[in-house]
Amino acid sequence: MLMKDIIEKKRNGEALSKEEIEFFVNGYTDGSIPDYQMAALLMAVYFQQLNKTETFYLTEAMKNSGDVADLSGIEGKKVDKHSTGGVGDKTTLIVAPLCAAAGVRVAKMSGRGLGFTGGTVDKMESIPGFCTSLETKRFIDTVNSCGMSVIGQSAHIAAADKLIYALRDVTATVDNIGLITSSVMSKKLASGSDAIVLDVKCGSGAFMKTPEDAETLAEWMVEIGKRAGKSMAAFITDMEQPLGLGVGNSIEIIEAIETLKGKGPEDITELSVKLAGYMIFAGEKAGSYEEGIEIARKNLYDGSGLKKFREFVEAQDGNPDVTEDFSLFPGSKIVLEMKSDISGYVKELPAETVGKASQLTGAGRARKEDAVDLGAGIVLNKKIGDYVNKGELLATVYSQSEEKAQKAGEMLKTAYAFSDEKPEKRQLIYRIVR
Ligand code: URA
Asked: Which residues surround ligand 1 with Cβ inside 6 Å?
């Protein structure tokens, strides 16, 4: 088989076979296929598309190019949750304890933040002592004893995806439905759970800018997961503005804890309860999605989710007392209050701009190797639909550096747009694809 023939076939709009797809995935992973040929193939795919069968073969080939987690040592159904990325999305840290408290096993491998989106692993590391790199046996033991564990995704999961994604990033071939689907799903399938609930974001702070595009991506991912034998569902949710009020690392853990105490913002609470409700249903601890929601809500308001969170933190060497004493988290030297220059209703607050402002505080990283400031970030005081008086607090910026805080504050101010009319309330969950 020759790579040149595969490129030509795709360039001419023909579908590739399973063998051809395995050939280029394995060849690119072992270095026998050079970047220039892979780049040409990616561009041919970009223009000619992959059909769903090709996407399935690509997903399986990339999954098999690295480690595939063996979770057979965990009793019961394992349910995973994955968000396509956003700003202020701390739902994993609320959803997983709500599910674990219902008896559903959550063995989760998460990523770090990059660019304007945050990552669960960085957020968890703001808890003093917390360990995100458990070896496999301890990961499985923790899920068995505590019902949940969250660790950093191994560097060896879907090895081919890592290489291909880096090439897509520099060849303008990221935003292609077949390539995104196979990239996300290869990692999810390699993570070994029985059921996967996806949260596909749409809006300014997401890959997919409209509910229609997000729905198409959700349908593709659900279909590929089902073909691989998984129980699947995808929520399509709003990311036009940040989720919740806190954006950062320790700032988001604190909001997750407040939510588990029943004192969280309305959007975070609603989305967490509904995602957890679906996972409890998928994990066969509820007879329906509606019953799952009831169980999740009960676990949130009776404190059993919070108790589970504390158990999980302790099991991974973190200090569980952070739930009662937020001063145990890393703090910030600079606290900058951003006041409004005008009165009116908040009309726009693009998640992407808020995410970039948070990155400027030091809470995010521009390159993979950058360190993050675990105490830095933003707490919003006003979101879309809120009325603000001139001089009233819009948001607070936290950073170790005066200069970074000032730059972040300036960017944050550009994010807010106002109107005299009260804007319509945004819909949080557009649809569930199953
Ligand atoms: N996230 C991924 O992991 N892969 C993509 O292709 C896009 C977003």
From this structure: 165, 174, 179-180, 183-184, 207
Please enumerate in sequence order all residues whose Cβ is within 8 A of that of 28, keeping only pairs 6 or more positions apart, or say none.
38, 160, 163, 164
What mean pLDDT comes out for the span 120-130? 96
Ligand 1 nearest-atom number relative to CA 180 = 6
Q: Which of 110, 183, 186, 191 is catalytic?
A: 183
User: pLDDT band for position 154 (50/70/90)?
Assistant: confident
pLDDT higher than 90, residue 115 = no
Q: Is 168 a catalytic residue?
A: yes
Q: Please name the residues in contact with 327: beta carbons below 8 A apart, sequence gap of 6 or more.
A: none
d(CA 195, CA 30): 31
Interatomic CA distance for residues 118 and 240, integer angstroms: 16
Give 318-371 pLDDT, tens digit per residue: 999 999 999 999 999 999 999 999 999 999 999 999 999 999 999 998 888 888
Which pLDDT score is estimated for 118?
86
Structure tokens at 333: 């030297």
Give CA–CA dist 285/279, Å, rounded.
9
Strand 106-110 relative to strand 148-152: parallel, antiparallel, unpaired? parallel
Instruction: Quote the strand ranges of 136-283, DSSP E.
Output: 148-152, 195-202, 231-238, 246-248
Residue 348 Cα to ligand 1 middle (Å): 26
The one-character DSSP state at 63 is H
Long-range interactions of 320-324: CB distance < 8 A, separation 24+: 322/127, 322/128, 322/253, 322/257, 323/257, 323/260
Statement: residue 113 has pLDDT above 90: no
The structural domains of the chain, ordered by start, are 3-48 (1.20.970.10), 79-323 (3.40.1030.10), 331-419 (3.90.1170.30)
